[in-house]
Amino acid sequence: MEKKYWKSLEEQANLPIANPGQKDVDASRSLLDLIDDEIDSKPSSRRNFLKFCGFSFATAAIATSCQNPIQTAIPHLSKPEEITPGMANHYASTYFDGQDYNGILVKVRDGRPIKIEGNDLSSISQGATSARVQGSVLSLYDDGARFKAPVIAAKETTWNMVDVEVSSKLAAASLTGKGIALVTSTIISPSTLSVINEFKTKYPSAKHVTYDAVSSSALLQANNLTFESQTIPDYHFDKADVIVSFDADFLGTWLMPVEFTRRFAASRRLNKDKRTISQLTVFESGMSLTGANADYRFPIKPSQQASVILSLYNEIAKSSGGTTYNSPASAVDVSKLAQKLIGAKGKSIVVCGINDTSIQIVVNAINQMLQNYGSTIDFSASLNIRKGIDEDMTALVKEMNEGKTGAVIFYNVNPVYNYSEPKLLQDGLKKVELTVSLSNAMDETASVCSVVAPDHHFLESWNDAEPKKGFFSLQQPTIRNIYDTRQAQDSLLKWAGSTTLFSAYLKQYWQQNFTGKQSEYTSVADFWNYTLQKGVFELPAAPAQPAFTTQVLADAAAKAAAIKSAENELVFYETIALGNGQHTNNPWMMEMPDPISKVCWDNFAAISPLEAKKLGVVTGDVLKLAEGLELVAFIQPGQAEGTIAVAYGYGRTKAGKVADGVGVNVFPLMKMDGGNRKASMATASVSKTGKKYDLASTQGYHSMEGRDIVRETTLKEWQEKPNAGNEMHEEIEKKHLTLYKEIKYEGHHWGMSIDLNACTGCSACVIGCQAENNVAVVGKKEVAKSRIMHWIRMDRYYSEDSANPSVYFQPVMCQHCDNAPCENVCPVSATNHSSEGLNQMAYNRCIGTKYCINNCPYKVRRFNWFRYATNDSFDYNMNSDMGRMVLNPDVTVRERGVVEKCSFCVQRIQDKKLLAKLENRPLGDNEILTACMQVCPAGAIIFGDMNNKQAKLTDLITDQRNYNLIEEIHTLPSVGYLTKVRNREAEEGNKA
Amino acid sequence: MHLQASNKQKLITFKLTAPLILLMAGLLFSSVSPAQNKGKEIFEKNCVICHKLTEEKLVGPGLKGITEKRDKAWLKKFIPASQDMVKAGDKLAVQVFNENMKIPMPDHKFLSDDDLDQLLTYIETYKPAEAVKVSVDIAKKDGFWRDEIVRGERLFAGVIPFEKGTTLNCVSCHAIIATDSLNFNPSAVDLAQAWQEPNGTNLYQVLREPTSSKMAEVHKGLQLSDKEIYDISAYLSKVGKDGMTWEKTFPARLLLFLFLGLLMAWALADLIWFRKVKYRVIHVLIIIVGLGVHGTLVIQEGINLGRTKDYMPDQPIKFSHKVHAGQNKIDCKYCHSIADYSKSAGIPSANLCLNCHKVVVAGTRSGKFEIKKIQRAVESGKPIEWVRIHKLPDHAFFSHAQHVGVGKVECQTCHGPVETMDLVKQVSDLSMGWCVNCHRQTGIQATTNKYYEGFKALHDDAKAGKKITAERLGGIDCSKCHY
Fold first, then answer.
1. pLDDT digits (tens, 9 = 90+) for A616-647
2. Does the beta-carbon distance from A914 to B406 stay under 8 Å?
3. For the stretch A738-770, what's the b/e string if a residue is b when 16 or more beta carbons lie within 10 angstroms of its beta carbon?
4. Which of A377, A402, B121, B172 is deepest in the core (most CB within 10 A)?
5. What's the predicted TM-score (pTM) here?
6. How many CB atoms lie within 10 A of CB B192?
7. What is the value of ipTM here, to two decimals?
8. Do A61 and B302 touch (CB under 8 A)?
9. How far apart are CA A846 and CA A331, in angstroms?
């Protein structure tokens, strides 16, 4: 039977797709009549208008005898050695926003950081980045939100005034014996921790509270109880054959998604040498990125997780002779899964993202029984990126309310927005004499603090990081501070009475602590300079495996078994784009369509199709979810019944022009429960309010109308037949006939291959492309009109049952067809074929007929409806002088009325070709990295020269899994896709 | 010349009465004797880079009191060939060599005995210039009365002659109108700026004691009173504020266009209504010729719209490529050093200019004023704002590296014979047709650059001696330049 793929529920049910931009048209009248109507309704026609224009331009040109403006060319007075006008420098640095770590290279052109790439020397990110890292460069130029100067009592002031105010009040708090609290996000910088220690030495009553809005508090405590080590181990998904995830979205948001995606993709890649892949099973409530990539996925309520985990534990314990514990009936039969896990002892991973200590203890016990510690789960290079214990913050808020705290300093945290009890916190803050925010941009916390001592942006700062034990990296400024800001560490040092600048402090710290740990460089200066140049410094990890104690297990199992289920449960989740809300004011992040829902510019209540039917809810109805929480419904296939998922990170009020008033803040609903902050809650009932609200979704349009777009097979079938699922490719290739002379590509012939098995849909490529190619942000209204400008569209398809569908991701950019349908219809030849196989687009020739858009079978062309770079209605980043700083000078900013699309990063092609010619050598394979290929954490995108037989690309496009999109129409695309292979039994579908 | 006149006086009246001698001694301080003049010239040409006449050390030691400290005969031996003395083991010479970080002093064997005498006399008698005493307010640089400005303008333009007979006027050399031609003398605006900046030129001093031989030559016979200088400075303060006036061009083509338009309108009207002219041939002729000329004008203007061929603007410094690249044969890439490997060819930074102009302090035609501008820019921190001549539209990407570094194209191919231009002019029209034509005709380095080895058919053709044009490898693809 033919499997049906669908992109939206409307499509599955053959309903017309809702499109708010579309006008109803009277179908009984012919098109010509309609056009006539339009002409009659207007006083002058377009033709007449053009005639007048033509004449008046010609005469105006003569009459005014146009003068060209005088341009000046201003050289340096004294040219710095490293700067060459017209050439970019790359500086190794570090990205850490309190949540995600990435070793990065910052591309600086003429003094401006314009793009961030992954540092390929870093063994953690290995040259890849996430979408958030790609977007972070834009926040440097956020003119609206960033502080321009220090602030006291909502008035801009000088640093001297701030230092006097803060130092005197800190001293006063010290004298009166009141507490001083330094509230920070997780700090992975050893030197910053050392600075904090100096601060604590100066003020002995000071304490350092680590507050992670989205913490791994339960995991840390569980590890402390079972291993006596309050750390998070490293998970080697590449070494695992069976992976089970309980609500841990490790491909999207959990701990280190970039590194985990790399490892997971490595375990999923297939070729002639690697004949097998891992198997991923996911238990979750809302559809996450990890769930979408699973071989087996079980939608269950958050409260049912404990029963499933306990049953899994008991099943494994039974066969390996461990103690079993009482467990409520499991929502899912896990006996088969248990057998698979036992079969893969030492080669499996069970991860759990639930912030509940007892559940985490049981999961630890499972991994212990499966002998995963030391093989796939590694304590020797433990992760430092989450250190916050939720109760610490609760204790501090209590102290503040009791009036015991004299001063609070907030660094890189925004609890007024994302703490569980914002009211209590604000009341407490009113009782504190000195409240200081070190935030570099306006946020909810800074707005209630008496003093704001703005930090530099991270691209302006010195710092270091130790994301994993033994893995160090350095951060260096890539631009002088744009505003009158001061690095947070410098502020702390100053208030601690030190006169050292942090830059010097850092250097000294490194020279003292790390020079001796290596033998490569003998001189201290060499070590510092070379490490700064490389950005990373990695030490071999000493093997460490703390012993497992089972003492706490019985108690934990009992507690887990006692978790009660409710009829309706709300689940709160993190989006790929926004994190815990620190990226919400970033227009690139805001407009990035969620990989699953394809909605941007809003959060929503994701409801299961069955439940929606029961309640009579359709997407767009506003629901009342809980007391004080009303949110628009979005029917999400695969959502667990009885649950509603809502993303946090939205509903900001003081973040800036992009974020403010978008969506609803659900952080206050994430309450403390059993010592940890819970990401779910029971709710009495869910009801319709009768109100309507439009979501901007990129889902309904760009549909490929049920053709053979995604091709898939199962592992077993592929092992038997390498072209399984792709049988038609060969047939179609045979049938290809053409009347035209075949084009010969004498030089290069660029092509790309995308491995659907590796691609997780994380959408980093979408933002990487946007940053590289000056793609405009258009806003919610325009997105709703199908006018989003992204050059890469992350297509998401569902198949099978809408209650629990299989999900497929497919990045689609211009396919650079050798028989391109768009080229033939352009009346001015603005789009035509290059001698290297590129479908090139000459913007200045384009007159905007949009024929090419109509004729493109892949719908990858975008039209500039407005002059986004200068139009104040599009107040995102491109329309201000500061926001324009981020633009890539090598890529034209498109004018209103022209069509644009993926260019295969032709500027990068040209750049690397030139480099090869200058160095008098042939161009190497993999030397040219398109922006999407460079950022991809999964390594799913490979770009190269199809004429180069030695190229990696040639292997991929001759693979039997390779196919082209809609290849039957003989467009001869240069982009090939590799069939998706799932590791499951064909007849089982999504259920084990 | 004023200076020589006073010298002559001195020679004649040398043995006259004591009061006169005293009087002349006064004159001496405000002028320079020929001997000292020669000594000064030698010093400024050869010594000034490394030595100061104060006690301050530059590269070599400060020379104040050197004639007392060292024996004159020794100095006369040391200056022409110091290294020989060091090698010969002269104790003092070795000591001086070691004291100065063993930086060898260049030989000056070309200096005659007399030259050395004069040089040493100059050093011995050197006194730092004293400020000229004048009767007006020197410090005033702004806020002049209107009649002072007007009088200054007239003096500058030569409408009112100077009190002490000379027919010179300022404006004939110091331009007040931007003319797009190279006048090596500083313009009025230049003068105003140099005077107005903090620690700027002291007009009173400079006008009495010209700073270069070039200036001395052209200012010969100029004896301005304090009041005249004061008024001229008043005028300069206005010029500095207003900037250069632009020369108005005569809009001949526009007038022709309008005139023909009117003529045709009249012909048409006459043809239909007035019937004043009997022969219709005339009407028809007028209209045909008129339309023809109109059409030609529209097409020509249309094609040239946005193009700047023959553009030859004045630059902030009267820099001559003819002198540098042509006469002195400096390689283009000495200054435009990044053309080989960067998109941009690079305009040399001021410190690069100073590599040479620390030593070369005066130009043959421009004197010291223009070269001093580089120093002034460095000292004030205000970079030099050159007027850009060759510019491509933003949507056209051009890389010098590709053309100069890879294609080995001569600079002159696109920029014309720059080495013969005093003032650079845009020679090519930089139109797309011009680019594409060259790509069609120009051969690439197909056999010498290993990059092309991968392309078999092409490489074989190249080895067989066929010319491989840029076009064959996509040299006329849109995406070669537009992306």
1. 999 899 999 988 889 999 999 999 999 999 99
2. yes
3. eeeeeeebbbbbbbbbbbbbbbbbbbbbbbbbb
4. A377
5. 0.85
6. 25
7. 0.84
8. yes
9. 59
